Automatic annotation (TrEMBL):
UniProt organism field: Dechloromonas denitrificans
Protein name: sulfate adenylyltransferase
Signal peptide: none
CDD domains, sorted: CysN_ATPS, CysN_NodQ_II, CysN_NoDQ_III
Gene3D superfamilies: P-loop containing nucleotide triphosphate hydrolases, Translation factors
EC numbers, comma separated: 2.7.7.4
Length: 422
């Protein structure tokens, strides 16, 4: 009889830190040591490493996929990689370390449930280390692993590790970062990544992979209220099948919580109430659905519902708001203009919005709050928007799905910013 292997669920995590701390090498080592690299991929990076005159395979090439990055030897864009072990599936985001790519890091962090902050053991805690840690906390990543890398270059010194750990803990206490775990490692040599190695015998904690395997899955930190933004209303037009004549299914993705047949629900903005008649995937009844599942809901009553509406449980109705305070990361080259009207896209609902106030801007280097009249690219600020249409929003720290939005330039249809509702 085959033993049942427990599935720990999908884990999305982010690697970040200062330039050349070894983020790409760390991910390459994880993929290599978990035996998830295809033979032709390994052969290609071996050839590239040989052309560069390196004596060993440069595992960082697995994530530095853009040609410009390979030529410069730095990470510019966010590189995503996927792998799985016997108990868990992973999505890794390798975020850029440069200050001018702050917007890329915010994009990568928005869906991550854990962040690995890399520190070069030779350099200790740097300005970029503090900045990335603060950004990770700001976008609601609940768990941090501080990986003190390149221990091989400081003779695997426990004293160096303890000094950097104490320095980071002092910084974390000032900015309110709480759930932190520390690990010494060498991504280049593979010490404490998947295998323990022989050089860090003084460290008796888990390896990096052990920490990742045991990390809580997304949506498990606290109970989330059911939120179902309607993407599409399905009304089949099949005259040959009279059973489909009255079929009216509301299709979308469960952003949070769960729903089952018989639950009392409310459709927003109308406020009309009904009960769930069926929960389906691909036309098959499943009875109950959970967070991140794409489903079709059928209700017991005929309610006028369209894209942009939201279905919630009747005892968990969010407030309709026409003004929001949010932390915004500005992503466009043109600065935010107080005189312009922008489009805010929140789940499947759009609303025109005017900037009412910039409360303050965050200096990402000093982490101080400073006054601001406008926002330039990569700026992060707390702002207030006035909305033309109401949104059904939750605070970002309670629900990342319904607490986030993007800002769109109506004239170009480009995404110019991303926000988190306070």
């Amino acid at each position: 009889m085959t033993a049942q292997v427990e599935d720990h669920g999908l884990l999305r995590f982010l690697t970040c830190g200062s330039v050349d701390d070894g983020k790409s090498t760390l991910i390459g080592r994880l993929l290599f040591d978990t035996k998830t690299i295809l033979a032709d991929t390994l052969s290609a990076i071996a050839k590239t490493s040989e052309k560069r005159g390196l004596g060993a395979v440069d595992l960082s090439l697995l994530t530095d996929g853009l040609q410009a990055e390979r030529e410069q030897g730095i990470t510019i864009d966010v590189a995503y990689r996927y792998f799985s072990t016997g108990t868990r599936k992973y999505i890794i985001a390798d975020a850029p370390g440069h200050e001018q790519y702050t917007r890329n890091m915010v994009t990568a962090a928005s869906t991550a449930n854990l962040a690995i902050i890399l520190i070069d053991a030779r350099k200790g805690v740097l300005t970029q280390t503090r900045r990335h840690s603060k950004l990770a906390a700001l976008v609601g990543i609940p768990h941090l692993i501080v990986a003190i890398n390149k221990m091989d270059l400081v003779d695997y010194s426990q004293e160096t590790y303890e000094r950097i750990k104490a320095e980071y803990l002092e910084f974390a206490a000032k900015v309110g970062i709480e759930d932190i775990r520390f690990i010494p490692l060498s991504a280049l040599n593979g010490d404490m990544i998947v295998d323990r190695g022989d050089s860090l015998n003084w460290y008796d904690g888990p390896t990096l992979l052990d920490m990742l395997e045991a990390a809580p899955a997304a949506h498990t930190e606290h109970t989330e209220k059911f939120r179902f933004p309607v993407q599409y209303v399905c009304r089949p037009q099949d005259s040959a099948n009279p059973e489909l004549h009255d079929y009216r299914g509301f299709m979308g993705r469960v952003e949070a919580g769960s729903i089952k047949v018989g639950d009392a629900v409310t459709v927003l903005p109308s406020g009309r109430e009904s009960t769930v008649k069926a929960v389906q995937i691909g036309g098959v009844d499943i009875g109950e659905a959970f967070t991140e599942q794409s489903i079709t809901l059928l209700l017991a009553d005929e309610i006028d519902t369209s894209r942009g509406d939201m279905i919630v449980k009747s005892n968990e109705v969010p407030a309709a708001v026409k003004q929001i305070e949010a932390t915004v990361c500005w992503m466009a080259e043109a600065p935010m203009d107080r005189a312009r009207t922008y489009l805010i896209r929140h789940t499947t609902r759009d609303s025109k919005a005017k900037l009412a106030a910039i409360d303050h801007r965050l200096d990402v280097n000093t982490l101080e709050k400073v006054p601001a009249e406008k926002l330039a690219m990569n700026d992060i600020a707390q702002v207030t928007f006035k909305l033309a249409q109401p949104l059904f929003a939750d605070p970002y720290l309670e629900n990342r799905g319904t607490g986030a939005f993007i800002i769109i330039d109506e004239s170009s249809n480009n995404t110019v910013g991303a926000g988190m509702i306070l």
